[in-house]
Specification:
By secondary structure, this protein is α+β, with helices and mostly antiparallel strands. It has 2 domains: 1-60 and 88-265, Thrombin, subunit H, CATH 2.40.10.120; 268-358, Pdz3 Domain. It has 7 helices and 21 strands. The chain has helices spanning 4-11, 41-48, 72-77, 110-113, 249-262, 300-303, 323-332, and strands at 52-65, 85-99, 105-109, 116-122, 128-130, 132-137, 142-146, 168-173, 181-192, 203-206, 218-220, 226-233, 244-248, 268-269, 272-277, 290-295, 311-315, 318-319, 338-345, 348-355, 357-358. The strands form 4 sheets. The chain has a 7-stranded antiparallel sheet. It is globular and about 65 Å long. The relative contact order is 0.15.
């Protein structure tokens, strides 16, 4: 069984998926399909691919080099080289991105442009731009860049909360520098968390073929809407194995809006520092909710009367499926908001009102 760290490393080997759609501000059709027929994937691809871009980022990476690295003796015997001297090396990261408005705003993955000194964007028609960094959010592995352009092809956001397992999707990206590659699959699962890729996880899982270079590409539904930003694959070989993960559009759009408006992602903070799943019975699935293990003294949660051992089962009336979902719901709350927490304590149901602070 691989460790969680190894699992996460394998996941980040490749990625990307899906794609953009609709030029400019064209309203989406109910579904791109002929009456009585299935989805017209060719029509979806024609509309979507122009909004998917190729991203090339020049990065400076600190690496240790040894004065003996060119010596055949050390090369033959391998192992760690002595007297390693840290120095910066230039590397090129290749990935994908999606234009989400006609004025040049592009969403991609943080790991595609992380530590980049220069970011170049190439459109499907060959136009090339120098991109400026708007902001990054490593906690979700989402980043936003911008190019100076007008009336660029763009993809409309879809409602990722309504996607269903088994639904058809297209993945569009630039695997292995093969631009505008389109693959088809279905949604394999939703709400994937505890994968080990990012701090806040609520991934859409798909079996559409994605590979290294697809990172930051688009996951598109049969209406030609962006429902996910491809982020990682699970692979033991470095290539496609039928398991890919995309940040859902709802989360990605929230991050994009926060980065554009505030330059950072503001997250809600109530002072709960440790949570855990509810203990499962001997047989059957774990019950819903999350157990509070620790909270800060004097924090909003403490002032509201929350105690260690309480089980939070709802947030503003929405059922909490488990600990990862609770963490996401609290983080997405706007600072200054007042949340209604439905809790179970000693077999009784109670409701507490907690004022949300800005996360430090």
């Amino acid at each position: 069984m691989k460790s969680k760290r190894a699992f996460a490393a394998a996941l980040l080997l490749g990625l990307g998926y899906v794609a953009g759609l609709f030029q400019g501000r064209v309203d989406p059709a109910p579904a791109l399909a002929a009456p009585g027929a299935g989805p017209d994937f060719a029509a979806i691809a024609r509309l979507a691919t122009p909004a998917v871009v190729n991203i090339s980022a020049t990065q400076l990476v600190r690496a240790g080099r040894s004065p003996f690295s060119a010596d055949p003796f050390w090369e033959f015997f391998g192992g760690d080289l002595p007297f390693r001297v840290p120095r910066e090396e230039r590397r090129t990261s290749l990935g994908s991105g999606v234009l989400v408005n006609p004025d040049g705003l592009i969403v991609t993955n943080n790991h595609v442009i992380e530590r980049a000194r220069q970011i170049a964007v190439t459109l499907s028609d060959g136009r090339r731009y120098r991109a400026a960094l708007v902001g990054t959010d490593p906690a979700t592995d989402v980043a936003v860049i911008r190019v100076e352009g007008r009336s660029l092809p763009s993809l409309r956001w879809g409602d990722s909360s309504r996607v269903a397992v088994g639904e058809y999707v297209l993945a569009i990206g630039n695997p292995f520098q093969l631009s505008q590659t389109v693959t088809m699959g279905i949604i394999s699962a939703v709400g994937r968390s505890n994968v080990g890729i990012a701090d806040y996880e609520d991934f859409i899982q798909t079996d559409a073929a994605i590979n290294p270079g697809n990172s930051g590409g688009a996951l598109v539904n049969v209406r030609g809407e962006l429902i996910g930003v491809n982020t990682a694959i699970y692979s033991e070989t470095g290539g496609y194995m039928g398991i890919g993960f995309a940040v859902p559009a709802a989360l990605a759009r929230h991050v994009v809006d926060e980065l554009v408006r505030h330059g950072r992602v503001r997250r809600g903070f109530v002072g709960i520092t440790r949570i855990a799943p509810v203990e499962a019975p001997a047989t059957g699935a774990p019950p819903p909710g999350a157990v509070v293990l620790e909270l800060l003294r004097g924090s909003p949660a403490d002032r509201a009367g929350l105690e260690p051992g309480d089980v939070i089962v709802t947030v503003d009336g929405k059922a909490v499926a488990g600990a990862p979902e609770l963490r996401n719901l609290l983080a997405e709350a706007a600072p200054g908001a007042r949340l209604r927490l439905g809790i179970e304590r000693a077999g009784r149901r109670e409701e507490l009102r907690v004022e949300v602070d800005d996360a430090p």
